[in-house]
Specification:
The protein is an all-alpha fold. It is about 80% helix and about 0% strand. It is built from four helices and no strands.
Length: about 110
Protein backbone atom coordinates (compact mmCIF):
# COMPACT_ATOMS: atom_id res chain seq x y z
CA UNK A 1 0.00 0.00 0.00
CA UNK A 2 2.85 2.41 0.69
CA UNK A 3 4.57 1.80 -2.64
CA UNK A 4 1.97 3.62 -4.78
CA UNK A 5 1.81 6.47 -2.29
CA UNK A 6 5.58 6.79 -2.33
CA UNK A 7 5.65 6.67 -6.14
CA UNK A 8 3.02 9.38 -6.51
CA UNK A 9 4.70 11.46 -3.82
CA UNK A 10 7.98 11.33 -5.74
CA UNK A 11 6.12 12.20 -8.94
CA UNK A 12 4.50 15.19 -7.24
CA UNK A 13 7.86 16.35 -5.93
CA UNK A 14 9.54 16.04 -9.34
CA UNK A 15 6.64 17.70 -11.18
CA UNK A 16 6.54 20.52 -8.62
CA UNK A 17 10.26 21.14 -9.08
CA UNK A 18 9.83 21.19 -12.87
CA UNK A 19 6.92 23.63 -12.55
CA UNK A 20 8.95 25.96 -10.34
CA UNK A 21 11.76 25.96 -12.90
CA UNK A 22 9.28 26.65 -15.71
CA UNK A 23 7.56 29.39 -13.70
CA UNK A 24 10.82 31.24 -13.17
CA UNK A 25 11.70 30.76 -16.84
CA UNK A 26 8.33 32.29 -17.79
CA UNK A 27 9.27 35.42 -15.85
CA UNK A 28 12.18 36.17 -18.18
CA UNK A 29 11.40 38.79 -20.86
CA UNK A 30 12.89 36.76 -23.72
CA UNK A 31 10.76 33.75 -22.81
CA UNK A 32 7.61 35.87 -22.55
CA UNK A 33 8.40 37.38 -25.95
CA UNK A 34 8.56 33.89 -27.49
CA UNK A 35 4.83 33.37 -26.87
CA UNK A 36 2.43 34.50 -29.61
CA UNK A 37 -0.63 33.99 -27.45
CA UNK A 38 -0.98 35.97 -24.24
CA UNK A 39 -3.87 33.71 -23.16
CA UNK A 40 -1.73 30.59 -23.42
CA UNK A 41 1.10 32.33 -21.59
CA UNK A 42 -1.35 33.19 -18.79
CA UNK A 43 -2.60 29.58 -18.63
CA UNK A 44 0.98 28.31 -18.51
CA UNK A 45 1.79 30.78 -15.74
CA UNK A 46 -1.27 29.75 -13.71
CA UNK A 47 -0.33 26.09 -14.07
CA UNK A 48 3.32 26.54 -13.17
CA UNK A 49 2.59 28.72 -10.12
CA UNK A 50 -0.43 26.77 -8.83
CA UNK A 51 0.77 23.19 -9.23
CA UNK A 52 3.67 23.17 -6.72
CA UNK A 53 1.63 24.27 -3.69
CA UNK A 54 -1.20 21.92 -4.70
CA UNK A 55 1.18 19.00 -5.15
CA UNK A 56 2.95 19.59 -1.85
CA UNK A 57 -0.32 20.07 0.04
CA UNK A 58 -1.90 16.94 -1.46
CA UNK A 59 1.22 14.89 -0.74
CA UNK A 60 1.38 16.07 2.87
CA UNK A 61 -2.33 15.44 3.31
CA UNK A 62 -2.04 11.95 1.79
CA UNK A 63 0.78 10.96 4.13
CA UNK A 64 -1.02 12.32 7.18
CA UNK A 65 -4.35 10.73 6.21
CA UNK A 66 -2.95 7.30 5.42
CA UNK A 67 -5.45 4.55 4.79
CA UNK A 68 -7.10 3.49 1.57
CA UNK A 69 -7.68 6.98 0.20
CA UNK A 70 -4.12 8.24 0.59
CA UNK A 71 -3.10 7.24 -2.93
CA UNK A 72 -6.15 8.95 -4.40
CA UNK A 73 -5.32 12.13 -2.52
CA UNK A 74 -1.76 12.00 -3.87
CA UNK A 75 -3.21 11.57 -7.39
CA UNK A 76 -5.26 14.78 -7.21
CA UNK A 77 -2.45 17.03 -8.55
CA UNK A 78 -2.15 14.75 -11.59
CA UNK A 79 -5.81 15.51 -12.30
CA UNK A 80 -5.00 19.22 -12.09
CA UNK A 81 -2.20 18.78 -14.64
CA UNK A 82 -4.55 16.94 -16.99
CA UNK A 83 -7.33 19.51 -16.59
CA UNK A 84 -4.99 22.43 -17.24
CA UNK A 85 -3.50 20.60 -20.24
CA UNK A 86 -6.95 20.09 -21.74
CA UNK A 87 -7.82 23.76 -21.17
CA UNK A 88 -4.51 24.79 -22.73
CA UNK A 89 -5.13 22.59 -25.78
CA UNK A 90 -8.70 23.85 -26.24
CA UNK A 91 -7.62 27.50 -26.10
CA UNK A 92 -4.69 26.80 -28.43
CA UNK A 93 -6.86 25.15 -31.07
CA UNK A 94 -9.59 27.77 -30.68
CA UNK A 95 -7.13 30.58 -31.36
CA UNK A 96 -5.64 29.32 -34.61
CA UNK A 97 -7.06 25.88 -35.40
CA UNK A 98 -3.73 24.13 -34.87
CA UNK A 99 -2.14 22.66 -31.77
CA UNK A 100 1.14 24.59 -31.86
CA UNK A 101 1.49 25.50 -28.17
CA UNK A 102 1.25 29.24 -28.78
CA UNK A 103 4.94 29.77 -29.33
CA UNK A 104 6.74 31.31 -32.27
CA UNK A 105 8.70 29.08 -34.58
CA UNK A 106 12.48 29.39 -34.02
Amino acid sequence: MWAPLLAFSLFNLAAAAACVAAAFRLLQPEERAAWRSRRLLAIAAVLTWSFPPAALAATAWAWSAGGAHATLIALAPLGWLIAMGVIFAIVDVAEDGVLDFGRRKP
